[in-house]
Amino acid sequence: MLLRRIAFVLLACSAAFVLSTQLGAGCTNTDANSDSRTEQAAIPHNARVVDNGVGPLSYTARNDGHVWLYDQDDRTVLDSRRIKRGQQYRVMPDDNRVTLDDKKVYDQDLKRKHAHRIYFQSSDTSSSSSDRDTLDRSDSGSDVPRSATRVAAGSGELTYRAKNNGHVYIVDEDNNRLVYDRAIHDGQEIVVQPDDDRIRIDGHNAFTGNLEHKHSHRIYFDRD
Fold first, then answer.
1. Measured between alpha carbons, how far is 206 from 182 in angstroms, rounded to an integer?
2. What are the average pLDDT values for consecutive 10-residue runs of the chain, which has 224 residues?
3. How does 21-30 read in b/e, with b if 16+ C-beta sit within 10 Å?
4. Among 93, 94, 89, which Cα is nearest to 121's?
5. What are phi and psi of 94, to 5 degrees?
6. Residues 6+ apart with CB under 8 A from 8
7. Domain residues of the chain, as ranges?
8. Sequence-ordered list of residues with C-beta below 8 angstroms from that of 194, at least 6 positions apart, any chain
């Protein structure tokens, strides 16, 4: 009789331990999934990366819109604000400072060793077809001005060396989506490498993200 009681107690304890372990694991997984779902919830899915990396970043808006500053290491949105066409948004991690047209708009710890991203979403307020920045969605992708010229296209690696100061735009031809854009100087070379999911400028990584290596891409250039 005593042995039966001891066996019953041990069995009950084992069952309780297994149940508590499973419940604990379930809670942990739920939290992790929640973090994964919400880490970039504040950034619209159609906002695009316009500059990223470790160190100073900058973006000059080609249209009215909204910018977000994102810490890739902490998976945290640090700043979010409206921006007007022509305004320059600068991130200076060494100085723990973000400026908009040289006016300080953020001065908290930027963790200078972390990688950051600037996201931009256009307000798409253009209404005149003669405007320099009027969008031609049927051909060159969202947010590419009609004044921009296609300088390279195809699947696989693409290369373009600027002959003037201006702005480059990388468009995914299959889904007609603007993947990346930034200012570029005379003589700089931009290389799009879909197989490696990166874009390089003068040999340095300028963008890392999913480039859909099976898709065709285009490079557009708009001279200043």
1. 9
2. 57 53 43 38 80 86 90 91 92 94 92 90 55 39 77 92 92 86 92 93 90 90 89
3. eeeeeeeeee
4. 89
5. -65, -25
6. none
7. 1-38, 40-125, 135-224
8. 155, 156, 157, 211, 212, 213, 215, 217
Residue 74's CB is within 10 A of a number of other CB atoms, namely: 12
Residue 159, pLDDT score? 94
- CA atoms 20, 24, 29, 34: torsion sign: positive
Distance separating alpha carbons of residues 64 and 41, to the nearest angstrom: 22
Region for residue 51 given its phi and psi (left: phi exceeds 0; alpha: psi -120 to 50; beta: otherwise): beta
Q: How far apart are CA 29 and CA 202, in angstroms?
A: 43
Phi, psi (degrees; rounded to nearest 5) at 73: -75, -40
Which structure tokens are listed for 170?
A: 């990388």
Question: 197, 213 in Cβ contact below 8 A?
Answer: yes
- As a whole number of angstroms, the distance between CA 100 and CA 122 comes to 17
Is 187 buried (19+), middle (13-18) or exposed (0-12) by CB count in 10 A?
Answer: exposed
